[in-house]
Amino acid sequence: MFAEKEYYAEDLGWMGKNAFEYYVKAYIEYLDHCSADEFDIMDPMLVVMQRAMWDDCHENVKLLINKISELKRISPCGDENYERRYDEAVQSIMKNRDQ
Fold first, then answer.
1. What is the CA angle 57-61-65, rounded to 5?
2. Helix, strand, coil content of the chain in percent (nearest 5)
3. How far apart are CA 98 and CA 33, in angstroms?
4. Structural contact between residues 44 and 64, judged by C-beta atoms closer than 8 angstroms
5. Phi and psi dihedrals of 81, rounded to 5?
6. What is the three-class DSSP state of 34?
7. Going by C-beta distance under 8 Å and a sequence separation of 6 or more, which residues neighbour residue 95?
8. Residue 50 φ/ψ, nearest 5 degrees
9. Rounded Cα–Cα distance for residues 51 and 94 (Å)
10. What is the pTM (predicted TM-score) of this model?
11. Which pLDDT does position 65 carry in this prediction?
12. Where would a tag sit more exposed on the chain, N or C end, judged by fewer CB atoms within 10 A?
C-alpha cells in the first residue's frame, strides 16, 4: 500500500491514535524493505513532524524515529532547513515523552 501511493504515508501524520499505532508498524516494515532510491526520507520525517505538531505522539513514534535514524545514513535528507525542523520535532517528542 505504501509503495503504491506516497500519500498513504502522509495520512499517518493525521490519523487518530489507534489507527496510527496500527499502520505505523506496517509503514516501518515497508521502510525496512526499501532501498535508498525507492523512497524519499523526507516522507517519514514529515510524519514525525506532523505528530509533534499535533502533540499526538504515541509509543510507536519512537520506533519510526529510530527507523529514520537508520535510513538517514543511506539516504540523507539534503535540506538543512527541513532537517532542522525534523530535529526540533524529535526533541519536542522526546521531551514530552519524558514528562
1. 130
2. 70, 0, 30
3. 31
4. yes
5. -65, -45
6. coil
7. none
8. -65, -45
9. 12
10. 0.83
11. 93
12. C
The C-alpha angle with vertex 50 and arms to 45 and 52, in degrees rounded to 5, equals: 95
Task: Divide the 99 residues of the chain into consecutive groups of 10 and give the mean pLDDT of each group.
Answer: 68 87 91 78 90 76 91 81 93 75
C-alpha cell at 63: 520506533
> Grid coordinates in use for 16?
487518530
Q: Cβ atoms within 10 A of the Cβ of 47, count? A: 23
40 in the Ramachandran plot: left (φ > 0), alpha (ψ -120 to 50) or beta?
A: beta
Residue showing cell 532501498: 35
C-alpha to C-alpha distance for 97 and 2, rounded to whole angstroms = 27
